Amino acid sequence: MKNKKSESTVILNLFQHLIYPFKQRFRNKFGMTFNSFLFLSTVILLLAIITSCKKNIEATKQLDCNFIDSSSTLPKNNIYKGVIDKYIKKGLPGISVLVTDSNGTWVGASGYADIKNGVKFTPCHISKAASITKLLVGTLLFKLQEEGKINADDKISKYIDKSILDRIDGADGRTIKQLMTHTTGIFDVITSSGFYLAVLNNPNKRWTQMELLKYVYGQKSYALNNPYPAHYSSTNTLLLSMCIEKATGEKHEKLLREKVLTPLGMNDTYYQGREDVPTSAAQGYFDLYNNGEIVNVSNLITGSGNGYGGIYSNVFDLQKFIKALLIDKTILSQASLDQMQTYAQEKDDFFCGMGIIKKFTKKPNYGIGHTGRDLGYVADLFYFPERNITMVFFVNYGTNGESSLKQVFFDFESELVDKILE
Questions:
Q1: How do residues 405-415 score in pLDDT, each as one tens digit?
Q2: What is the CATH number of the domain that holds 335?
Q3: How far apart are CA 91 and CA 408, in angstroms?
């Protein structure tokens, strides 16, 4: 195994020399970045070699998921069950869903949390919420603003050293609000081929903010043009976490737990990279070879714990959060919620607010909340204000790379939302 690991490191180094010149030629010719989707499709075989050499992934715990369940009495019980079972049959490994509407709360799950060990996916299993982390960190920012510790109109140079910002194209003169609405144009660390190579070579590494920024330094910022003045970038929320820590003198993960997670009783929510994730976590999968055979990629940590990703939770805890934030409005003031919902359009059906996004604008009713996408996991957390409906789901399959199941997931998301809004 030692020899295999050394061999994989050599392959990575050689590949890195090949990928960087191509990446630059790609940018120069087409005026765009060599994005993670193309990159991940290229390194599929490399991923398989390295993943096989890392420590064994701990099995997911079997759970007795006990809760008061009235789902079978609700009008759409068979409809929702039919949707999730349909997409399990199409190849998605596991799904958990929670929907609340005027009829009550529907909860269901299907498939496997751990395929190898035959552990069925239950609503009580936690899974990776990925970029839903951004909504939690954005909420924390507004809590701190209400306490007078930071202001969304502050320039980030107030909190981050000039020596750092000078190395980040597009950072000069930017404000915290621009970080949160993704209107800085700053390069997205998650699209860095060098970063993904580092993740593949050391999948269990717990990254620091400064280590991640090395993959942003010197990268050209994105051009922002009307009618799309936003460009989604995880680097924005990484920098936001640094601003929060400088303003308060405390780690943002500590503040997140003290001011958001603990008060809401989110006892099944964990922040990977800053906290250990328990064995009640579902395994994450991806079709590495794009041949219909999915592989466990749970041990690949893509910079979790630095503001933009890393939250693990279950449908019950995320429902508590979205209800408290947008329905009961017990976390933030109405003024903060109004400011949070200041949107900049990123693409046709994706609007970036201050830590929140608006989506499904072409459906009968739009939703506000956040999506989560990672190498082995996806999640959605949305509130449909015109219908007073909430939707939470987890799928333990990743869409950050190209595969035949990627479209299957998007079909699932679209069909589920359609059925919810019928």
A1: 999 999 999 99
A2: 3.40.710.10
A3: 8
